Amino acid sequence: MKKSIGILGGMGPLATADLFRKIVTLTRAGCDGDHIRVYIDSNSSIPDRTAAILNGGPDPLPAMRDSLRKLERCGADCIIMPCNTAHYFLPRLQALTDVPFLSMLEAAAKAARGRYPGGTAAVLATRGTLSSGLYQRALEAEEVPCLIPDAAEQDALMRVIYDGVKADAAPEAYRADLETVVDSLSRRGADYFILGCTELPLAAAALGLSVPTLDPTEELAKAAIRWCGFQVKGE
């Protein structure tokens, strides 16, 4: 029996659409029937994850749990979340269900080790993701060295994410911020960049960013395709 994917989304909606598009385009398929069944709950009312982690903002878990229950009722065989910061809450969510979650962070870390052996990654992410050490731990488990943006660089990334992509701003509105961060981290020894917020692959594509990157959204899509027993295009 073919397995299905549940996407616990809405964090944000465009990132959710990007993950679904990547699942479709990366699945080796010759016709409609060769694709994976995907259930999507895009709940844009889930409270902000970074605010909850850093500032005592509203707990997003109740809304995430509601999405989880809806995906369970649909019959999802695995669940994925197109939000890196949301993985801070993954242990609490996994404890609520027998349906397995696939980790975007683990998928990205394994891909980094395989694609850039010996290279140093720079992790571009929200302040919540970086302060919680989510990527640092995942990369350490795969023995991948990494650099973390400093406070000013994190401020710039937050502007790219929140005032840029999430606000549907024109790419030129956030070009200087993103390119400045990339240039600074390159000078400090970064060999490639992990786009560790699901809005950042969208920003990088819109700006035509030319540095070596790793897209965790794409790696999560590949991991879900493989988990469901389908083939990834090009593999």
- Quickly give the structural class: alpha/beta
Beta-strand content bin: 5-15%
At the first level of CATH, the class of the largest domain is Alpha Beta
Number of helices: 11
The spatial strand order of the largest sheet comes to 5-4-6-7
Which whole number gives the mean pLDDT? Answer: 97
Shape: globular
Q: Care to count the β-strands?
A: 7
The H-and-E topology, N to C, reads as EHEHHEHHEHHEHHEHEH
| Count of the domains | 2
Radius of gyration: 17 Å
- What is CATH's topology name of the largest domain? Rossmann fold
Low-confidence stretches: none
Biggest sheet architecture? 4 strands, parallel
Terminal Cα separation, in Å? 22 Å
> Helix fraction?
40-55%
Report the CATH architecture of the largest domain.
Answer: 3-Layer(aba) Sandwich
Could you describe the 3D structure shown?
The protein is an alpha/beta fold and 235 residues long. It has two domains: 4-104 and 218-227, Rossmann fold; 105-216, Rossmann fold, CATH 3.40.50.1860. It contains eleven helices and seven strands. The chain has helices at residues 13-26, 49-55, 61-74, 90-94, 104-115, 127-132, 134-141, 151-165, 175-187, 200-207, 216-227, and strands at residues 4-9, 37-42, 78-80, 121-124, 146-147, 192-195, 213-214. A four-stranded parallel β-sheet has the order 5-4-6-7, with helices on both faces. A three-stranded parallel β-sheet has the order 2-1-3, sandwiched between helices. Helix 5 packs across helix 7. The chain is globular, with a radius of gyration of 17 Å. The mean pLDDT is 97.
